[in-house]
Amino acid sequence: MVADANMQASRALEEVDRMLSNASMTAKRVGLEAGARCADVVLELREQVDSVLFVRSVELLTNDQEIYCSSLQGEYRRSIDVEAYVDGRVRLLRHSGTQPDSSLLIYRWVSGGRGAIVTIDGRHVRDALSMVRRNGTDLMLDVGGEVLGRDGIMPSGIVAPSDAIVLQSKLFPISVWAEIPKGELRRRVLADYSVLLLAFAVFGAILGLCARKALSLVGSRRHELERALRTGEFVPYFQPLVSASGGGWLGAEVLIRWEHPKEGIVAPNDFIPLAESTGLIVPMTRGLFDSVATVLSEAEVPDGFRLSFNVSAQHLRCSTIIRDCEAFLARPGMQSVQLVLELTERELLEPNSHIRGIFGALHEMGVKVAVDDFGTGHSSLSYLRDFDMDAIKIDRSFVAKIGENPASEKVLESILEMSRKLNLTVIAEGVERQSQAQFLRELGVPVFQGFLFGRPMAGEVFVRHLQGQQETDGVPVGCSSPSLMI
After folding, report:
1. What sections of the protein cross the membrane (predicted)?
2. Distance (Å, rounded) from C-alpha 430 to C-alpha 437?
3. Are residues 281 and 300 in the same domain?
4. Tally of structural domains, the chain
5. In angstroms, rounded to a whole number, what is the distance separating the alpha carbons of residues 479 and 461?
């Protein structure tokens, strides 16, 4: 059990290190924005909360110790107690001695009078301590004398027992200690070498149980996806694509969300990888086609309105993609839309005659194909070389660096120059500030997507906004520039 307790403490420390590493990277990323107007950066702070695992909130600092912008509250002022942070970086905060769920693990980053703090909900830490706990071992996180266990923060001044296993993090000023059940150390000494053999046996059994449990969890999650497919829990959200010149809607990207009956809205990153690895991504995308057609069946969708779907490489390998697109375009109201398939790079698409035949059939139907997240993956340029692509979507990481990183701006200029030579339409995603939009507009990017123009919205909200689009000279706004449609 000593070896087991040591392993439990090590795994718990790895989990908390991972949480703080996420917080550290987030703090450094957003901390560079410190000093900017809160109204200009608060959306970026909230996106970090939405996209980074474990992060509960992000706040910007001025003068090292005063908060002026928060992902939760927007613009507000509050001083922080710098002395309370161990090594100036980490703090374990109790909001209430009777409410363990309100505890927070906080990371602080400062540089040159600017900085950020990132908070992690204490329940994530408590969950990590509970998940690895077994055989009665108690696991505690110690941050400068503040101790958090699986049952919540304990009173100050608690120290590890003399026979406890204490592991110090090599990355952060924290430690995890495991309190071994009483008498275990004495039994280990008395057992001498026989316990070593037993430890090997126990360790092997634990590994076997962990492997079995991991496989069981994967199988259980797959069954959840299959059940959700049967009950229609995967729903479309829509984010507008707008004209850079006029601001009108040219179309929308269709994004999938899982409306779980118990967990609420589940983000794509939490289920798409498993759907791809199990082959469920194909029926999932097919179901999304059907849901979009149903949602838009009563709407007045303008001619040439672009509807863009993310598709996996395995779906594009199947001839069924052709039938899926035909069925979608045959639905009421969908005959006049411009269907676009955005190819993701999580799985490589091989250049062969079968794939090229599918691309040819799609183009004959009028379906366009775009490269998603262009500039970040290993296969972006090879896709342009090997396949007949119609458009590229500039990855948001390049857009985010506009005004900050001259190298990123040069890359954008090169992408635009290449796209003109290849006759490709360019869409910039992740546009959140007017300064970004102005730079891209001057560069010649014709289509924008991002929080500046609209967040992803549920189907009924999207239809209501679409119906509210005004007409100019009898032509729906957003469709007055056919040359921008791909």
Report:
1. 190-209
2. 10
3. yes
4. 3
5. 20
Residues 204, 83, single domain; the answer is: no
User: Is residue 385 assigned to a domain?
Assistant: yes
The neighbouring-strand residues paired with 55 are: 120
How many angstroms separate the CA atoms of 449 and 453, rounded? Answer: 7
Whether 372 maps to a domain, the answer reads: yes
Whether 473 is in a domain gets the answer no
279: left (phi over 0), alpha (psi -120 to 50) or beta: left
Contact 471, 302 (CB under 8 A): no
Q: Is 70 helix (H, G, I), strand (E, B) or coil?
A: strand
Tell whether 462 and 426 lie within a shared domain.
yes
* CATH at 454: 3.20.20.450
User: How far apart are the C-alpha atoms of 327 and 347, rounded to whole Å?
Assistant: 25
| Pair (372, 317) in one structural domain | yes
Considering the domain architecture, whether residues 114 and 254 belong to the same structural domain is answered as: no
Contact 147, 140 (CB under 8 A): yes
In a shared domain, residues 78 and 171: yes
Tokens representing 103 are 């505890």
CATH number at residue 23: 3.30.450
CA distance 212 to 215: 5
Local confidence pLDDT in tens for the 486 residues of the chain: 567 777 888 888 998 999 999 899 999 989 888 889 999 999 889 888 887 888 889 999 987 689 999 998 899 899 998 888 999 999 998 764 445 456 889 999 998 778 999 999 888 888 888 776 666 677 888 888 888 877 666 666 666 666 678 889 999 999 988 876 655 555 554 454 455 556 666 666 666 555 455 444 444 677 888 899 889 999 999 999 999 998 899 999 999 999 988 888 888 888 888 888 888 888 999 999 999 999 998 888 999 999 999 998 888 888 889 999 999 999 999 999 999 999 976 677 888 888 999 999 999 999 999 999 887 765 578 888 888 999 999 988 899 999 988 988 998 999 999 999 999 999 999 999 999 999 999 999 999 999 999 999 999 999 999 987 634 433 344 443 434 445
261 and 163 housed in the same domain: no
485 assigned to some structural domain: no
Tell the residue number behind the tokens 């100050």, with chain if given. 156
Instruction: Show the domain range for 71.
Output: 1-182
Tokens representing 128 are 């990590």
